[in-house]
Amino acid sequence: MSLAKKIISGDRRALARVLTLVENGDAHSKDILAELHPYGGKAHFVGVTGAPGVGKSSLVNFLAQSLRVLGDTVGVLAVDPSSPFGSGAILGDRVRMADLTGDDGIYIRSMASRGAVGGLAYATGAAADVLDAAGFNYVIIETVGVGQSGVEISNHVHTTIVLVASGAGDDVQAIKSGILETADILVVNKADLPGAEHVLADMRSNVVMNPSPAPSDHHAKSKQFDGSDLAWRVPLLSTVARSGDGVDLLIKSLLQHWEYLENSAEIDNRRRTRIRAILESLLRNRLYTRFMEDISRKQFDALLESIVLRDIDPYSAAARLIEEKYQASCLDKA
Amino acid sequence: MGKHPIRVLIAKLGLDGHDRGAKIIARSLRDAGMEVVYTGLRQTPAMIAEAALHEDVNVVGISILSGAHNTLLPTLMDKLREQNLAHIPVIVGGIVPDCDVNTLMDAGVSAVFGPGTLTSDIVTSIANVIESDLQD
Q1: What ipTM does the predicted assembly reach?
Q2: Cβ B56–A108 below 8 Å, yes or no?
Q3: What is the reported pLDDT for A39?
Q4: Do B30 and A90 touch (CB under 8 A)?
Q5: Where does residue A243 rank: exposed (0-12), middle (13-18), buried (19+ CB within 10 A)?
C-alpha cells in the first residue's frame, strides 16, 4: 500500500513519515501530495496568531479539546522559529497541549520555520494539505510569535484568529495597519490581568464589531446573515487561555464564521487565496533554489568580492546574473 | 544542499520537577543545528511514545532525576514498541547509578549520561547513534 493510501486509511505512522518527507522537500513528496490531492478540500483551516508569549498554544489546547467535544477531529501544526545562526530550533508548543494527549482524534506536529519569515514554514501549506487529506475536520495552524507584519497566515486559512495581550500598547497601536486587519476573530487573552479592560476598549473603538453573536445550531444554516447583510463583522472576545475561560464563545464565533463563509460564497475566495499563496510560495522558493544550484559557488563568491571592492553595485550584479541565466536558457531552446 | 536537521524529542519522564538540565541540553542541541521537540515536565511513557510518533523524531532523549528510571524506562520502551517505534534510539540523562546502567541498556536504551557529561559529547553521541542507525 502506498504511503498516501495508508494515510487515507488512518495510519498515523505513515502520516508522520509523509509530513517529514514534505518538510524536507524529499523527491517523493511531490508524488505523494499529488496522490493525496483529490482527498482534500474538506477541512476547516484555522490560523491562530499573535505576539510571542500571548497564549497561542494554551488557547489551541482548549480550542482543540472543545472541538473534540463537538465530535470533530483536529490536526494541529505548531510553528516555532529556527535559529538565525544555524538550522536548529526549540519546538516548545507541545508543552502547553498536554491535555490533548491519548486521543486518536487529535494529531499535533511541531514545525521549525527553517528560514521562512512571516510566521509559517515553507512546508506548512503542504503539511496542512496532508492533514486535510488524512480526514481531520479542523486543521489549526499556530504561527511563530509574530508582530504587526505577521499577515501571511491569513492567506493560508479560512479563519484567522488574532490574539492580543492585555496591556500591550496604546490606542494608536490598535489602529495601525497589519495583523489586526487580517483578523476574522479578535481575542484579548490573559483577560484576568490588569490592563485588559483598557485593551478591550481600544480594540472596540477601532475594530468593526459583531454585537454579541447569537447562538446558532452548529448544523443549521445561519439565519443571521440574509442577503442584505453579507459582511462579516469581526467579533471581539476575551479569554483566559490558561483556564479555558471564554473559549466557548470563541468556538461559537468560529462556527459562525464558517457558516458565513459558506452562505456568502466567500469560501471560494478564501480557497483561491490559499491556493494562490501556496503556488506563489512554491514558485518563489523553487525558482530561487534552482537558480542558486546552477550558479557555481566560485562564481557567486567572485561576484560578491567585486561588489565589496566596489567594482560593481549589488543591483547591477543581480540584474546581470539573472540576465545571463535567462539568455542561457533561451539559447538552449534555440 | 545540506542534510536535513536531526529531530530530537527531549522529555522529562515521570514526576521529577528539575528541568534545568533538560533545557540546557535542548539549547545545546539547538546550537548544534538540531530541531528539538521539547515536551516539558511530567510526561508519561504513553505521552512520550505518542509525541515520538507524531513528530517522527530521530532520537528520544529522556531526562530523569527521580530514581524511578528502572520502572519507567522499560515501560517507555514497551510503549515505543507498541507504536512500532522500537527502532528509534533512546538516550537517557540525569541521575542513574552505575549499577543500573546495564539494566537500562538491556532494556534497549542506547546510552546513559550522568552529571558532568559535556554537552558536546552528547551532541557527538547523538550524531553517532543516528549514523549507526542508518547503517543497520
Answers
A1: 0.92
A2: no
A3: 96
A4: yes
A5: exposed
